[in-house]
């Protein structure tokens, strides 16, 4: 093989490294994935075959309704009796749909999963199989295929607790699971040949990996030292040209830039608000002034509700001010809080405030939603009927200062004690 790694096509099977094959499936007409993801270019369910001198390994499978394609490709290369190992990097149904039938056809094969995947595997297989055996693996564990070695990397929460990566040492191929993947279907398969998939790559990261940035960084510590000729994800193009740039891009996407702007010692508070007649706006301004009186707190105030995900994700405290209309929180706050499902908010401080005419339910509704997002609410929200008085504006300043004191540790209250933290 030449330095660019030749591609051989045989009955739709693609060999992209010596003895390493793509045996997955293409789904070009898919337009929505898992209800919430737009897939304008469809997707692929990438599964792989590794041939060694002492047996064969299958790495991941496909969505159930694409099983026929998967088995046809698999059978064109090997007999089921040759299969020594079945590796699952992730147990979501789009990667394990063909697993029960594969286990039935290759009963001698050993199944390898991460140590966090056992309960998920039992739930997955119980309707279709009886007793089955599996082996759990951790970082550094290996499977030998004679002249081939598969080494496992334990990388949980990317994006389920069970996720891991598999590295083929001799060919320097990383089977990366959902990491470095995207929903982009192109039968040419390789990043240097397919169309422009940059948007799909970043969109996938934003919706799938972004909430788990800490775990991304932990995984990169294991991945970056590896020799990498190829990255083979479970969705989207196989990364054959300059694979390391995608690793670097993940680090860039997962690294906070806020510290370079305000310093590591400062705390960031963002106040979002909407105001019908200026009353909630007055409250927001006074809360910001009160919080800003404390050294070490940087306060930003935004009079609109666009989902500034980067700002929200890097902030230490988030306050939301909205009026109550017809006994409810206004729609924009619901849209804003719903959009935060892609952000890890656990442990961030939160607060709510707002003006109202008749009732004032919006503040409590916002607080309940923040608790559902596992935020910590250190102070009961502020409600002001119609136009705030001077006393009420002073209460707003005090509210902002009290939250800032919790934020900086200058309050006697221990930050982070909240019912949401116990969920």
From TrEMBL:
SMART domains: Lactamase_B (SM00849). Gene3D superfamilies: 3.40.50.360, Ribonuclease Z/Hydroxyacylglutathione hydrolase-like (3.60.15.10). This is MBL fold metallo-hydrolase. PANTHER family: ANAEROBIC NITRIC OXIDE REDUCTASE FLAVORUBREDOXIN. Pfam families: Flavodoxin_1 (PF00258), ODP (PF19583). InterPro entries: Flavodoxin/NO_synth, Flavodoxin_CS, Flavoprotein-like_sf, Metallo-B-lactamas, ODP_dom, RibonucZ/Hydroxyglut_hydro, Rubredoxin-O_OxRdtase. Keywords: Flavoprotein, FMN, Hydrolase. Residues 269-404 form the Flavodoxin-like domain. The lineage of its organism: Bacteria, Pseudomonadati, Pseudomonadota, Gammaproteobacteria, sulfur-oxidizing symbionts. Its cofactor is FMN. It comes from Solemya velesiana gill symbiont. GO terms for molecular function: electron transfer activity; FMN binding; hydrolase activity; metal ion binding; oxidoreductase activity. In the N-terminal section; belongs to the zinc metallo-hydrolase group 3 family.
């Amino acid at each position: 093989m030449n330095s660019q790694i030749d591609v051989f096509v045989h009955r739709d099977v693609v060999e992209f490294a010596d003895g390493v094959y793509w045996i997955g499936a293409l789904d070009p007409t898919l337009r929505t994935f898992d209800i919430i993801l737009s897939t304008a270019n469809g997707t692929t369910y990438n599964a792989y075959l590794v041939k060694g001198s002492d047996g064969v390994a299958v790495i991941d499978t496909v969505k159930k309704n694409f099983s026929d394609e998967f088995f046809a490709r698999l059978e064109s290369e090997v007999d089921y009796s040759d299969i020594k190992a079945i590796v699952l990097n992730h147990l979501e149904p789009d990667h394990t749909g063909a697993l029960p039938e594969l286990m039935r056809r290759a009963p001698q094969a050993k199944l390898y999963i991460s140590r966090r995947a056992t309960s998920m595997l039992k739930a997955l297989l119980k309707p279709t199989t009886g007793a089955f055996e599996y082996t759990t693996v951790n970082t550094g564990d290996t499977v030998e295929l004679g002249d081939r070695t598969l080494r496992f990397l334990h990388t949980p929460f990317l994006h389920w607790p069970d996720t891991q990566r598999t590295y083929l040492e001799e060919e320097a191929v990383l089977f990366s699971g959902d990491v470095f993947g995207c929903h982009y279907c192109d039968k040419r398969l390789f990043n240097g040949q397919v169309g422009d998939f940059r948007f799909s790559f970043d969109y996938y990261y934003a919706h799938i990996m972004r909430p788990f940035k800490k775990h991304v960084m932990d995984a990169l510590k294991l991945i970056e030292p590896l020799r990498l000729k190829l990255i083979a994800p479970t969705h989207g193009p196989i990364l054959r040209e300059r694979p390391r740039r995608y690793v670097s891009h993940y680090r860039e996407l997962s690294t906070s830039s806020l510290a370079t702007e305000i310093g590591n010692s400062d705390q960031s508070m963002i106040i979002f608000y909407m105001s019908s007649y200026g009353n909630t706006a007055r409250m927001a301004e006074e809360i910001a002034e009160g919080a800003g009186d404390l050294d070490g707190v940087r306060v930003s105030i935004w009079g609109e509700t666009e989902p500034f995900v980067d700002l929200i994700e890097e902030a230490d405290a988030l306050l939301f001010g909205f009026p109550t209309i017809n006994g409810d929180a206004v729609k924009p706050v619901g849209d804003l809080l719903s959009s935060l499902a892609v952000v890890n908010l656990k442990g961030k401080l939160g607060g709510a405030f707002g003006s109202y005419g008749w009732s004032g339910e919006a503040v409590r509704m916002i607080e309940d939603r923040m608790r559902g997002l596992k935020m910590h609410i250190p102070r009961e929200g502020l409600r002001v009927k119609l136009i705030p008085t001077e006393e009420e504006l002073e209460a707003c300043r005090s509210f902002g200062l009290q939250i800032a004191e919790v934020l900086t540790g200058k309050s006697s209250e221990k930050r982070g004690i909240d019912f949401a933290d116990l969920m």
